[in-house]
Write a structure and sequence with these properties.
- By secondary structure, the chain is of the alpha/beta class.
- It has one domain: Dehydroquinase, class II (Rossmann fold), CATH 3.40.50.9100.
- The chain contains five helices and five strands, in the order βααβαβαββα.
- The radius of gyration is 14 Å and the shape is globular.
- The chain starts with a strand and ends with a helix.
- Pathway: Metabolic intermediate biosynthesis; chorismate biosynthesis; chorismate from D-erythrose 4-phosphate and phosphoenolpyruvate: step 3/7.
- Its EC number is 4.2.1.10.
């Protein structure tokens, strides 16, 4: 099974930024642990702060991978372009958020990605990624 995690803006700062919301672990450390825990999965990771690069990556992998775990961060609530890219591809996408977006500012309650995703997981910290990964084993 071939799965990619695609992370959007500011997620490269995990472990450094707003630890009360996002925790103390870097994504690199978490990803290494995830790879060790699921050696049977060909697991990749991509992060960009640039909307167009996220769209390019979705188009690149969106017809060949078995699953995409997508955390577009703030672009979730603003990007019609990313929404259109998710709708255009055939690989199933699970939208993930580390924090509970519904307990935060009102603008974070709307997702342009969710209508085109297989499912949405919010609020379980970095474990949200593992829960999304597990959804592809069904």
């Amino acid at each position: 099974m071939k799965i990619i995690i695609i992370n959007g803006p500011n997620l490269n700062l995990l472990g450094k930024r707003e630890n009360n919301i996002y925790g103390n672990q870097s994504f690199t450390e978490f990803f290494a642990d995830l790879q060790d825990k699921y050696p049977e999965v060909e697991l990749r990771h991509f992060q960009s702060n640039i909307e167009g690069e996220l769209i390019d990556k979705l188009q690149e992998v969106g017809f060949d991978y078995d699953g995409i775990i997508l955390n577009t961060a703030a672009y979730t609530h603003t990007s019609v372009g990313i929404s259109d890219a998710v709708r255009a591809i055939t690989t199933p996408v699970v939208e993930v958020h580390i924090s509970n977006t519904f307990s935060r500012e009102e603008f974070r309650h709307k997702s342009y990605v969710a209508p085109h995703a297989k499912g949405v997981i919010v609020g379980f910290g970095l474990q949200s990624y593992e829960l999304a990964l597990m959804s592809f084993f069904e």
